[in-house]
Amino acid sequence: MFNKNSSVKSIFIVSVAFLVSSYEAAFAASDTAIMQLVPVVADKQGPVLPIQHWQTQNGASVYFVPEHQLPILDIEVLFNAGSAQEGANFGLANFTNSMIGQGARDLTADQIANRFDSLGAQFAASSGRDMAQISLRSLTEPTVLDQSLQTFTQVITQPNFATNSFGRVKNQLLQALLQEQQTPSDIADNAFYSAVYGNYPYGHSPLGTSAKIKRFTPNSLIAFYRKFYVGSNATVSIVGDISQEQAVNIAKQIVGGLPTGTSAPSLTNATYAPKEKNITIPYPSTQTFIRIGQLGISRTDPNYFPLYVGNYVLGGGVLVSRLFKEVRDQRGLTYNVTSYFIPMKTDGPFIASLQSRTSKSTEAIQVTQQVIQSFIDKGPTQAELDAAKQNIIGGFPLLLNSNAGIVDLVAMLGFYKLPLNYLDTYRTNIAAVTQSQIKEAFSKQLDPKNMVVVAVGANNGA
Description:
single chain; alpha+beta; Cytochrome Bc1 Complex, Chain A, domain 1; six-stranded mixed sheet; five-stranded mixed sheet; 16 helices; 13 strands
C-alpha cells in the first residue's frame, strides 16, 4: 500500500513525510520514486508494466496491471481531497478521511473491521496535503474477494459518519495533535512548512488545529465528503490476479455508485517569501532537530531528473552522500543527515534534515549550508554521477517486486497524470542526466542564502 503503515488509520500517520502528509510526502530523494513527466525515448527492454487505462461512466480514472504470480488483489482509490482542499477548515480533510471505515450504511466500525479480518483482507485509509487514500488487499478466491469488495464498496460509497464514531475519532485526533505538538521532529516539520508556505494551502499540518477540530460536526464532514469524494475526482489503481474484464467490473462496483461531481480546483502556484528565515524553538532535549530548505518543485517540473540524480549525490544516497560524508563522517556532528525534494501538485519543498547534539547544532547548520552551496557551485564529480546513476538504476527493479510496490507506482502515475510509458523510460532518463544539467538545475532552483532554517532544541543557539 502507499503508506508504510497501511494497516494503521490515517489519524495516526498523517505526519508521515509522502507522504507524507501522507502519502505524497513519503517521497524522499533517497528512494527511487516515480514523480515526473518528461519527453524521452523508451528503454530497450520494452514495457516495464502492461498498464491498462480507462474511465468509468462517472469520470473516475482507472489503471490496471494484471499480476498473476500470487492470488492477491491490491486496490488503491485516491481522491484529490487532501488538506490543500480544505481552505481555512484546518483538519477537515483528515477528519473526513479518518471516518472512512468507521461506519457505512448499517454497519458499525467494529462490524466493518470484523468483516475484513474474517476474510484476511487489509483495509486502510490515510490523508495528506495533496490526496486522500483508501486501499484494500484481498485474496482473489471468488467468495473471499466478493465479500471483501462488497464491504469495501460500502465503506467508500456509503459512509454514515455515525455520531458515536464521530466523537471517538475526534478525541483520537485531538490526542494525535497533542502528540504532534510534543514531538520535536513534528514541531520542526510544521514550523518549516509554515515558514516556507505561509498562508498557502501546504502551510499547515494536515492534522489541523484543536480549535478547528473541536468545532467540526458530522455535517461538516458530510459536506466535504460530498464535494470531493466523487467520480471525477477519483483515481483507481488495481493490481493483481484478475482479468481486465474483472477489473472493469470491480472499478464500476467500488466507485460507480459515487456521483460524477466535479474535479477539485487546481491550486495556484506557491510564492516563496518567508517572513522569517531563522527560527529557533525551545525544547527540553539534548538533541536539536534541524530543517533547512525552501520551495522546491512540482510533480511536472522539467528539471526533475537532474535534481533527483543530483540530490542523490548531495544528500539522498544512504551513507554515500556529500552531506553524510561531510557532516557525519568527517566531523561527527550528527548521526544522520539527508536531503530530498518532495514534488507535489504545485511546488513542494526541498529539505535538508538532520539531528545534532545541541552543543554542536550551530556548527552542523553551518557545515550543511556550506556543503549545499559548494554542490550548487561545482556540481557532482563524474565519479559521483556515475555511482549515483548505477545505484538508482540498479535499485529500480526492487520497486516492482511486489503487488504493493506496483500499485503504489501505478496510483502515483494516475493521480499526477503522468504518461503510461513513464516507467518504461525511467532508466533512460536517469542515464541521460549530465553534470552540466545538474549544476544548471540546482543553480536555478536552490539558494542557500535564502533558505529557511528551523532548529528545535534546548538553548540551541542556531
